[in-house]
Amino acid sequence: MLAMEVKNWLVLIVAAFVFVLGILKRLNGWYYAAKLGKTWPKLPPGHMGWPLLGSTILFLKSFSSGQPRNFIRSFYIRYGKCDMYKTHILGRATIIVCTSELCRQVLGDEHNFKPSFPVSINRLTGRKSLIQVFKAEHKRLRRLTTAPISGHAALKMYINGIEHTVMSGLEEWASMKNPIELLSEMKKLTFKIIWNIFMGSSLEYSIDEMVVLFSQVAIGFISLPINSPGFNFHQSLKARKKLLNILQSIINQKRLAKNMQGKSWEAKDMMDLLMDVKDEDGEELDDETIIDLIFGNLFAGHETSSITAMWAVLFLTKHPHVFQRAKEEQEHIVTQRPTTQKGITISNIKQMKFLYQVIDETLRASGVTFMVFREALADVEINGKIIPKGWKVIPWFGELFTDEKYFPSPQEFNPSRWDNYVATPGVFIPFGSGSRHCPGSDLAKFEVSIFLHYFLLNYKVELLNPNCKLTCLPFPHPKDKGLARVYKVE
């Protein structure tokens, strides 16, 4: 009798627990349904998840496990394949758009959509960074920061410095007795390049220390914005504060030099140029704006390039036939140039057709750029569905890059797919589009192509864990960061 009563009580407890969980999982949906009223039924399919957390735990788990597509596939399974879904992630009600047409529409419509990143990214990049400023202010600051890094003349000016850094780095890697982490070493190499371009050749601070600090900032980008010890976001804020102090001290030194030299002072790098800029009223940029712009350029300028270069090495190493074809192209370019020529030129780089296909295929297959963030400035109706004002909107590039409709056999690394490729607008935009297209995209590809040129000609890699599992926080990479030995070849 007692056993039967205990069993009944356990059944009641389990039933009550399941009931309470069911209620909790619906609270977020009920809240937004009540808030939006008649608009709610017009939203895309989806669910709002748990109170406060929404679907964030599943979102972070999918990225942490190296399977970000599992998150969106959970919606496919539950609601069928649609062009957009509603949910609640990283603290905000969100619409995820999944087709090239919608991605292009959202990214190109600055009247109805503005850049609006999660709290974690906003806090870590600064309110004056290019990803946060909007419309006229964005155009002005973009113009100021784009001039030194784009165009034929600017790229030509950087070739020798990039070559020297790449050749020295590869030589050093091959001389190391112990295996290296390709990603960590690539970050150091690309950081040296981008620092020289934006800040000048003098670097009083340790490269290793600076790269570690930037990596700590990156970890907090896609995280719960909880500023307490033990959370990634807290560690990232501490790293950002240290970096801001370093940049502020450099500004102070430069301002002192500028005041002492007077009219003879001359701008030599991007920070100098930003210090010298005046607006329509003759006012100079304040330190916060200069620091946020430089911080953003230093971060984006080395992070994306290093991850792309690492993935290119991994893919080339795992596909010997692609490696050989790319190597033969580089050898041909070398044999065709004048014997008096030292190093490569922009003209040589323009001949690297297959290598650029390798880079594009790397950007597609690695999923380096998986999504971006926008916010609806008004209720927007698309395809009969409403995107409510104030909701986050995420163009989900990851699904486009693996869509068999556009990329047959998408899981295969195949640079030849880009032969005579006819682009569908909005399908392959790893650097964004429209006015928000990354201003440093040409420089990034330029860096990666020079690195791969010298790597293919003179080096090879032995991966210690070729089947290592992945993580996508903050960007896709093997969990061992590409542990490998680098060898110099004849």
From TrEMBL:
Alphabetized UniProt keyword annotations? Heme, Iron, Membrane, Metal-binding, Monooxygenase, Oxidoreductase, Transmembrane, Transmembrane helix
Query: Keyword Iron, does the record have it?
Result: yes
The regions listed as transmembrane in this protein's record are: 9-27
Query: Which BP terms from GO are recorded?
Result: brassinosteroid biosynthetic process; brassinosteroid homeostasis; sterol metabolic process
The terms under GO molecular function for this entry are:
ent-kaurenoic acid monooxygenase activity; heme binding; iron ion binding
Lipid bilayer topology: Single-pass membrane protein
Output the SUPFAM superfamilies linked to this UniProt entry: Cytochrome P450
* This protein's name: Beta-amyrin 11-oxidase-like isoform X1
Which lineage do the record's taxonomy fields give for this organism? Eukaryota, Viridiplantae, Streptophyta, Embryophyta, Tracheophyta
